[in-house]
Every structure is written in structure tokens, then in C-alpha cells.
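Subject — a protein and its fold
Fields — amino acid sequence, C-alpha cells
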Amino acid sequence: MDAARRVAERLGATEHRTIKLDLTPFGGSALTDRNIDVPVGGVKEGIPVTYVPARNTILLSLALAWAEVLGARYIFLGANAVDYSGYPDCRPEYLHAFEKMANLATRAAVEGHHIEIRAPLIDLPKAGIVKLALELGVEPAQTVTCYQPDADGLACGVCDACRIRKAGFEAAGVADTTRYQPR
């Protein structure tokens, strides 16, 4: 949450709100169920145990509600369909379907104010995301992608998200400034 707040401030967000959202009662994922270990043996084929059922649908629904209140035309998210873990809710066809649903389900859309879902990273390889972040002045060390960061926000360095991130920096030929836990 600290990283999200810092990035929002750095990019000039007018307001950054947070809400308490706990998906642990549902479980079903290594990220929401203490009985399922976060894999650290490398990225495997198929949908991994770190997939959180309906996470992007839930988060996009909350963003949609806030966008409608604000009168916003766009919802941006960082979903990526290249060099990713295989989550079904990170695919372009899912995002198009959500946008269609959003424009059927909101007063704003019925009144002619359509909302667009934008995922500018959707087709970029991780190396492209690293380069774009640096071009935009986003310091990667201020962001967190780790599935199991410690209390200080230091990345574990061994989960799938960390492995994919490290590979992105390597492919970009850029020093990885991510703050990792000592090993």
C-alpha cells in the first residue's frame, strides 16, 4: 500500500483512496489461503496456484463504481498478457468483455457516457514495461510485484512474480533496482 501511495503521489494523482478488501475467506489461491504455498520453483505451464479467483473482476468492479461517481471515462489497470503467469483475467478478451458489461450496467453508460477499460501494458513484454517505467520516470524500486514481500515491502526474489520481473530487467539490459530481501 505504501508503494501504491508513493507512485500515486509521484504521478500527481488528485486523490488516492484505499479500502479494506479481504479475499482470504474465499481462499482458493496461494495469495489468499495460508494452506497453499506460494511456488518458488520457477514458472510452470498452466494457471498457477497464485491465481486469485475473480480478483480482477472484483477490483475492476470497485474501480468502475469509483469511475462512475467521478464521471471518469477511463479505467486504467496494469494487466499484462505477455511474459505473465497465465491468469485468465489478464487477457484482452476478458478486458473487452468487462468493458462491455460496464457499459450495460452503469447509469453513466446508459446516459451516453461510456467508460473504457485501458490496459497500456497488456501487449508489452516485461522488458518493454521496465523501459517504459524508466522513460516515464517511475523508479522500479518504488513498486512491488512480489507475491510475498516482507513487512518492509522487500521482495522475496524467488516467487514467480519476482522471477518474471528479474527476467524483464535482464532482457531490457537494465540494472534491477528492486529492493529484495537478503538471502
